[in-house]
């Protein structure tokens, strides 16, 4: 049975309530999970793409609702007094769960003209706007959550923002202390931007998986693409990093985002990358 339910703010024991039965809140989303992108905070999605988290029920930030079989008899109807306290909606559509975060701006109260068989004027009533697409979908059979914006769903799946975690000050200092980095012009950990703090976490994992030979080759690779923008001391095998833009280029190089087009031999930097197998 298709149902629309709501999570109410401020309730701990029984926060979920039924709103509407036997209706779909969203059009069914048909998607090939194989083409969804494993979540990467530095990846810019294409317009028709989704991030995914596989094995979602095993994650610490998965809500209990998704870890058990759904039974509508476990939920009471939502009373009028709690309509304004809705934190998010979720729709049970077949075996899947569709989620939409609710913000105050989605509550609308105004006179409207309704066009059915004839035009009718409806007096002001509070309405809740439903977006064209859900903020997240959990495919129970595949145990996979898909979404487009992690920040939007962080209030639904508490703790999921750990996937978007910036490198700590200590981790940034550790990275800036790498043997191939020389800080100049008083640039230090305090000057590292939030976007670069997020990128550094990925770069550190990449470096950890590299062999010594790969690290050496990496320096030549970066220098080959950034010689006009990053100063490389060949004798000491160090890049001079004087500002946040220098650091971004270095991190992009570690992530191997620079490439040359096969037709025209144009040097480029990929804004986002997806592994193709």
In short:
The protein is built from five helices and 16 strands. The chain has 277 residues and is an alpha+beta fold.
User: How much helix, percentage-wise, in residues?
Assistant: 10-25%
Integer average pLDDT = 90
Radius of gyration: 25 Å
Give the terminus-to-terminus CA distance.
39 Å
**What letter string, H or E per element, gives the SSE order?**
EEEEEEEEEEEHHEHHEEHEE
Model description:
With 277 residues, the chain is α+β, with helices and mostly antiparallel strands. The protein has 2 domains: 3-161, no CATH class; 169-269, no CATH class. 19% of the residues lie in helices and 28% in strands. The protein has 5 helices and 16 strands. Strands 3-4-11-10-7-6-1-2-5 form a 9-stranded mixed β-sheet. A hairpin with a 4-residue loop joins strand 13 and strand 14. Helix 3 packs parallel to helix 5 (244-254) and helix 4 packs across helix 5. The longest helix has 16 residues, at 194-209. The chain is elongated. The two termini are 39 Å apart. The relative contact order is 0.12. The model has no long low-confidence stretch (mean pLDDT 90).
What descriptive keywords fit this protein?
2 domains; nine-stranded mixed beta sheet; 277 residues
């Amino acid at each position: 049975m298709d149902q629309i339910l709501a999570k109410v703010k401020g309730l701990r024991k029984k926060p979920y309530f039924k709103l509407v039965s036997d209706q779909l809140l969203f059009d069914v989303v048909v998607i090939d999970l194989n083409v969804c992108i494993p979540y990467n905070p530095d990846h810019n999605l294409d317009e028709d793409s989704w991030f995914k988290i596989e094995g979602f029920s095993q994650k610490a930030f998965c809500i209990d609702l998704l870890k058990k079989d759904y039974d509508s008899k476990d939920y009471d109807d939502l009373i009028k007094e709690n309509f304004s306290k809705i934190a998010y909606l979720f729709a049970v559509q077949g075996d899947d769960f569709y989620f939409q975060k609710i913000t105050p701006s989605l509550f609308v109260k105004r006179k409207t003209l309704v066009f059915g068989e004839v035009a009718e004027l409806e007096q002001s009533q509070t309405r809740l706007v439903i977006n064209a697409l859900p903020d997240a979908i959990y495919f129970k059979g595949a145990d996979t959550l898909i979404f487009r914006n992690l920040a939007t769903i962080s209030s639904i799946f508490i703790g999921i923002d750990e996937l978007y975690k910036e490198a700590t000050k200590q981790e940034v200092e550790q990275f800036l202390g790498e043997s191939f980095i020389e800080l100049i012009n008083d640039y230090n950990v305090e000057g590292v931007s939030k976007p670069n703090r997020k990128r550094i976490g990925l770069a550190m994992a990449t470096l950890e998986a590299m062999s010594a030979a790969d690290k050496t080759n990496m320096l030549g690779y970066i220098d080959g693409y950034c010689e006009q923008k990053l100063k490389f001391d060949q004798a000491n095998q160090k890049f001079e990093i004087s500002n946040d833009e220098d650091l971004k280029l270095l991190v992009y190089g570690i992530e191997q985002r620079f490439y040359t087009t096969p037709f025209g031999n144009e040097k480029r930097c990929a804004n986002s990358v997806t592994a193709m197998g």
